[in-house]
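Take a sample.
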Amino acid sequence: MPHAHQSSLASAARDVAPLAAAHAATAEERRRLHPAVAEALIAAGFPHHFAPDLPGRSPGTFTGLLEAVAVLGEECASAAWVASVTASAGRMTAHLPAEGRAAVWEKGAGTVVVAGLMPAGTAQRVPGGWRVRGEWAYVSGVDFADWTLVAARTEEAGRTAVRVLAVPRADHAVVDSWFVIGMRGTGSHTVVLDDVVVPDERSVPLEVVLRGEASEGSAPCHRVPLKAGNGLTLAAPLLGAARGALRRWRELTGAKLAAPGGAISGGPDPGPYEQVLARAEGELDAVELLLGRAARVVDRGGVTAVETARNARDCALAAERLAAVVDGLLRTAGTRGQAEAEALQRHWRDVNCGAGHSGLQWAPAASAYARLVGAPGR
């Protein structure tokens, strides 16, 4: 049952979180998750949260994923990011033909799927399939993946199109290319394909994925436009990381909050630290409400074009507000908060890096929403 699975995923996330915290520094240094953390994420159920056609279980919900990923993000945003994006990539496999889905999930719930959906390669028609070549950067979690979904440009029916193709780990190389200031532990390296033939049953037009078209009888989560749910999977780790930053800020500034003029005294002249605390908690509550509504919309199904655009708008707005929150926390934490080994500055780097993702940019999301609601008859 979805609700039982939703609850169990959050519970499993609470069990994994201390392990992710213990290995967060190692993940940063090695620029990939510790194998024990990756195995724990798989055992918890993140990569197959939305998986189609797994015997004995129903796909989970976006609401359940949001809660569980945020729990992880409080301790390690990189682990939360990999957990979230592998769940998202697993959901996209529902759009493959039945034979392709069966091939991807042949080994069952232990399968890990990752994705590089920028059309950075080309696919040429050959008998029975597609000959694919190209390089796809920023494929998070690829070190632990069994399959990678890549998007490639094709020529079909006299026009340029894009297809999504499922490629097993044995068929592609991974180039160590992830050198960034935040989300260091996500291992978002580059996937390289050189003349790999992918059969038709393991490919689908990108527009099918974007529209959320799945086979009849599929779960509601498989019939969701990509832009209605994709921002949730990107913003959820940032919500957790911002919560972790606030918790650590309180630990660092506890003495200042308790001092005269800084404590939560209820007096006529509230101190600066209690103002920072109140504003940060209020902003995080507001973001949680925004993301919670977006999750409920996609879980309900039947998502409209306006709801899709609103979800994308809300997720971009959430990322913007979360970055502002951690900026304020770092500025007011004192020099201790900026120490290299300090969790607060790691959370700050992770949130700002994640908020820079192309799927969380405010300008295009705002424009797309405004064009819809501003149109005549809306």
Summary: The first helix runs from residue 2 to 22. DSSP finds twelve helices and seven strands in the chain. The CA atoms of residues 31 and 342 lie 18 Å apart.
